[in-house]
Specification:
Blueprint (H helix, E strand, L loop, with lengths): L7 H6 L5 E5 L2 E8 L6 E5 L10 H9 L3 E5 L16 H15 L4 E7 L1 H11 L4 E9 L9 H5 L5 H8 L4 H7 L7 H8 L9 H8 L10 H10 L8 E6 L7 H10 L4 E5 L6 H5 L1 H11 L3
Parallel strand pairs: 3-4, 3-5, 5-6, 6-7, 7-8
Antiparallel strand pairs: 1-2, 2-4
Helix pairs in contact: 2-13, 3-4, 4-10, 6-9
Length: 294
């Protein structure tokens, strides 16, 4: 799918012309918005969203003079759909390659959901490159906690049938991840890249890549991301959290607070997983002030 394939309502909410990059895993679509000489902000989405998640923040930061880079992970959003399983290590390598391709040496970072493990994976390898960090409803460390509804989606065969075949992840996220109903345009935007089973493989793969088992292939990668977190302890950090998130709940927030006790906290008691959808300008204004002008 390309940006030209979006409906007029979705395109109006996502007024960008994405570019393509030949990432190691396949064609990666990414937004590069704002002045080229602005300090870059890298925004990384998770599952089952795409760069549409960041649309309002992209516009706000670009208006402040920031250059905003927001990729769609390969297999997600407007990026290519390779017929192979991509794991956390592949996602980190893809983002590192994109930064190298763009010649970006230093940047600020914003993460959500799986974007946390990916973004902290990138940041932890070269912490000197990273400035401010926005953390929204995510994780970047091993956890034994998994909601029953997500555990169900990891059951072999059944889980893939539910997630990929029946759209039992992207579609429920449009109401389970928010406390306020999404507008029709926002709901259509989140679902736009996932209209058939053939384009939803990566949604199911992301779920299967959650490293709950001791011998899971991604467990050691996530453990390395967790081990690198102390190297980022002195970075300015804003924890922006929807407190009604059924997945990345208060236990994940507490995990970040323990590791980064000096981080600023912006907590929204009535917001869910898609905190920027529920909190709106109350979150965007504070985030804009946190990142500041170029």
């Amino acid at each position: 799918m390309t940006a030209s394939g979006l409906s007029p309502d979705v395109q109006a909410s996502y007024p960008f012309t994405p570019k393509d990059f030949a990432a190691p895993s396949g064609r990666m679509s990414y937004v590069d918005h704002g002045p080229r000489d602005g300090r870059p902000v890298l925004l990384l989405h998770g599952n089952p969203s795409w760069s549409f998640l960041w649309r309002d923040l992209i516009l706000k930061l670009a208006a402040q003079g920031r250059r905003v880079i927001a990729p769609d992970h390969v297999g997600m959003g407007l990026s290519a759909r390779p017929d192979r399983f991509l794991r956390l290590a592949d996602r980190i390598a893809d983002v590192e390659a994109l930064l190298s391709h763009l010649g970006i040496k230093e940047f600020d970072l914003g993460v959500h959901d799986w974007g946390g493990a990916i973004g902290f994976g990138v940041a932890g390898r070269r912490p000197e490159r990273v400035g401010k960090i926005l953390v929204t409803n995510t994780g970047a460390f091993l956890s034994e906690r998994i909601p029953a509804r997500i555990a169900l989606c990891r059951v072999p065969l059944l889980g893939r049938f539910l997630v990929q075949g029946l759209n039992g992840f992207a579609w429920p996220a449009t109401w389970m991840s928010v406390e306020k109903p999404l507008s029709p345009a926002a709901k259509a935007g989140f679902l736009a890249p996932y209209g058939s089973a053939g384009v939803r493989r990566a949604v199911a793969d992301f779920v299967a890549d959650i490293p709950m088992e001791a011998d899971h292939p991604t467990r050691s990668v996530l453990a390395a991301v967790e081990a690198s977190l102390p190297d980022l302890k002195g970075k300015p950090m804003l924890l922006c959290w929807g407190m009604r998130d059924f997945c990345f709940d208060v236990t994940f927030l507490e995990g970040f607070i323990r590791r980064f006790p000096s981080a600023e906290q912006l907590l929204f008691p009535e917001a869910g997983h898609y905190v920027l959808e529920d909190a709106g300008e109350a979150a965007l204004g504070r985030i804009g002030a946190f990142f500041g002008p170029a």
